[in-house]
Amino acid sequence: MLDRDATVARPRGRGSPARIPPGGHGDPDSDPRRYVGTPTDGDKVIHMKRRESLGPLLLGGLAALAAGGPGCAGGGPRPTPAGPAVARHVKVYAEAGRFGGWPANHGLWAWGDEILVGFSAGYARDNGPGRHAIDHGRPEEHLLARSKDGGATWAVENPAAGGALVPAGKALHGVPPPGVEERPWRDCPGGIDFTHPGFALTARMTNTGSGPSRFYYSTDRGKTWDGPFRLPLFGRMGVAARTDYLVAGKSECLLFLTAAKADGREGRAFCARTADGGRTWEFVGWIGAEPAGYAIMPSTVRLGPDRLLTAVRCREGERNWIDTYRSEDGGKTWVLDQPAAVPDTGEGNPASMVRLRDGRVCLTYGHRAEPFGVRARLSRDDGRTWGPEVALRSDGGGRDVGYPRSVQRPDGKVVTVYYFHDTPAGDRYIAATIWDPGDGTR
């Protein structure tokens, strides 16, 4: 999304996790556009004891707390349940003097151990406290990074070289890159096969309040993209599209978007649907009532044929949090869950929600208050209740963090990609944390 530059200073929160030295930070190798994470012992993790307390559990890479002695059952040792643990942190895109940011605005896709993520790449500039450290007068690129080994190494790609995903519109934090132009927008002719094994879709906005959005799609795992195809305004002043969709069939797809409110300001989440391969899109239902502030950037999973769960970034006044809504009728009507899934995200951050193969729901999000970082919560009952916060990282240098997208690998580990910086003045970069969500028994 077009993130907020104006911020509210926040004191260090209660229940801040104790700092454990992180390990396994990936460093760039000799190729400036390829980054490799090299932890001390591969993906080996010493399992950590979960602390049921007001503070989140900090999971430093390869740092561990004792799991406690085994109990006894039937005269023999009882296995210790496996809790969440971080395997490594890896740099996806990190270049001196550049700004990497906001994967949640672009999308993440996976085909087994091949993972593709989009992000913005600008130039670093100190704009003062509470402002994004990006140069608004220099080019902003929309890049992709691809991993073929489950997130351990990454190679950066520039789709604009082929005329695709070219930055445009008032939502940019920089200026459009020179020498490339976005292809003319078209009405989609339909015929998209959403079930194609190499399928990916990305939805892009031009502004957060007024103005249209467009989408691209790929059937070769994001190597080439067809589009841009215009999305309707659905009777609103503007639609701010980011990438959140669920495939429902060969010609059917649900798209979750943010529309302008009645006053023209950002924003209110809703569900749209195509049943003719992308040729037409129809409004399905609002996700909640129109908010006083905003309720934007949904991230959605399917719980059953018509059962959906979405996480929405919310703000009202100085309060920022994440709500979840559920639908039992394919997105037509939605009911707010109580209490909030994440009652405080500091200055605000969107969530990424994925359904794990064991049935649990995993929520990841940035935390824009001290200690700055990236956190997760897990649910064993379809998001009705959530376990304690898990601090994937608590070593951020400031508020320019988060905007994650997550995916589960074939081996069960989760790869969470986000933007980050290590010191207040440090360059903002794209990072990935590879972590084990545990076996669901803790």
Please explain how this structure is put together.
With 442 residues, the protein is mainly beta. The chain has a single domain (83-436), classed as Neuraminidase (6 Propeller). 0% of the residues lie in helices and 38% in strands. The chain is built from no helices and 30 strands. The strands form seven sheets. Strands 1, 2, 7, 8, 9, 10 and 11 form a seven-stranded antiparallel β-sheet that branches. The protein is globular and about 45 Å long. It starts with 26 loop residues before the first strand and ends in a 6-residue tail after the last strand. The relative contact order is 0.16.
Provide a brief overview of the structure.
By secondary structure, the chain is mostly beta strands. The protein is 0% helix and 38% strand.
Individual helix count = 0
Instruction: Give the CATH topology.
Output: Neuraminidase
CATH level 1 class label: Mainly Beta
CATH architecture group name: 6 Propeller
User: Helix/strand-derived class?
Assistant: mainly beta
Biggest pleated sheet: 7 strands, antiparallel
Number of strands: 30
What's the Cα radius of gyration? 21 Å
What is the terminal separation in angstroms?
A: 34 Å
Helix content: under 10%
Low-pLDDT parts are 1-76
The tally of domains stands at: 1
What amount of the residues lies in strands?
35-45%
Shape: globular
Give keywords.
442 residues, mainly beta, Neuraminidase, 7-stranded antiparallel beta sheet, disordered N terminus, Sialidase, Sialidase_sf, BNR/Asp-box repeat protein
